[in-house]
Specification:
Length: about 170
C-alpha cells in the first residue's frame, strides 16, 4: 500500500534527525535524512558543500528533496533551511504530511552542536536571526505542529497521536 510520507521541518537543532529516526522505528517506516542523503550522494560533508557557497548547497538540496519526495512510506527529516524554497514544500506536500517540530530557541541554543552546521558555526547567535526569518514559514507550511519540550520518547508518541486516525492505522499496520 502506498502511504504518505511523514516530513519533519523546523529550526536547525530542533531534533528533526533524532526524532525522525525514532519515529520511523516506532512506525516501522523507512527513514531518510535529507542532509545524510546529500552527503552520501555527493561524498562530501555539508560543511564542504557550503564552502562552495550556500546557493550550491540549496541547489543540491532542492534536487535531493525532489527525488526523495517521489517515494512513499518514508519518514523524511529535512534540513532547517528547506522552507527557504517553496518548490521544496510543493514537492514534500505531494506525498507527505508536514510536521513542524517546535523546540524553544533557548533549548536549541543549550545543546546544539554548531561545528556541523556551517550557517551558524562562526556565530551561534545567528540562530536567533534564522529563527526570526523562518518561524513564520514553519508555521505556514506545516500540517501539524508538535512542541518538542518533553523527552524524545514522549515527543515521538505525541507525533504518532497527532496523526489522523486512518493515517496512524495505515502507518502502524503496513
Ligand atoms: N526532546 C529532546 N530531549 C533531549 N535532547 C533533544 C531533544 N530534542 C532534540 N534534542 C537534541 O538536540 C540535538 C539536535 O538534534 P538533531 O536531531 O540533530 O536536530 P536537527 O536535525 O533538527 O538539526 C541532538 O543532540 C538531540 O539529541
Ligand atoms: O538551517 C539550515 O539552513 C541548515 C540546517 C542543517 O540541517 P539541520 O536542520 O538538521 O541542522 C543543514 O541542512 C545545513 O547546515 C543548513
Ligand atoms: Mg538534522
Amino acid at each position: 500500500m502506498k502511504m504518505r510520507n511523514i516530513v519533519l521541518i523546523g529550526m536547525p537543532g530542533c531534533g528533526k534527525t533524532t526524532i525522525g529516526k525514532l519515529l520511523a522505528e516506532s512506525l516501522n517506516m523507512k527513514f531518510c535524512d535529507v542532509d545524510a542523503y546529500i552527503q552520501e550522494n555527493t561524498k562530501k560533508s555539508i560543511s564542504e558543500i557550503f564552502k562552495e557557497g550556500e546557493a550550491v548547497f540549496r541547489s543540491i538540496e532542492r534536487k535531493a528533496v525532489e527525488k526523495i519526495s517521489k517515494e512513499y512510506n518514508i519518514v523524511i527529516s529535512t534540513g532547517g533551511g528547506v522552507v527557504k524554497s517553496f518548490v521544496n514544500i510543493q514537492n514534500l506536500k505531494k506525498n507527505g504530511i508536514i510536521i513542524f517540530i517546535n523546540r524553544p530557541i533557548e533549548k536549541i541554543f543549550e545543546d546544539i552542536d554548531i561545528s556541523t552546521r556551517p550557517l551558524i558555526k562562526d556565530r551561534k547567535e545567528k540562530l536567533y536571526l534564522l529563527y526570526k526569518e523562518r518561524y513564520a514559514l514553519y508555521k505556514k507550511y506545516c500540517d501539524i505542529e508538535v512542541m518538542n519540550t518533553q523527552t524524545l520518547k514522549e515527543v515521538v508518541e505525541k507525533i504518532i497521536n497527532s496523526l489522523s486516525g486512518d493515517e496512524k492505522i495505515e502507518n502502524i499496520n503496513h
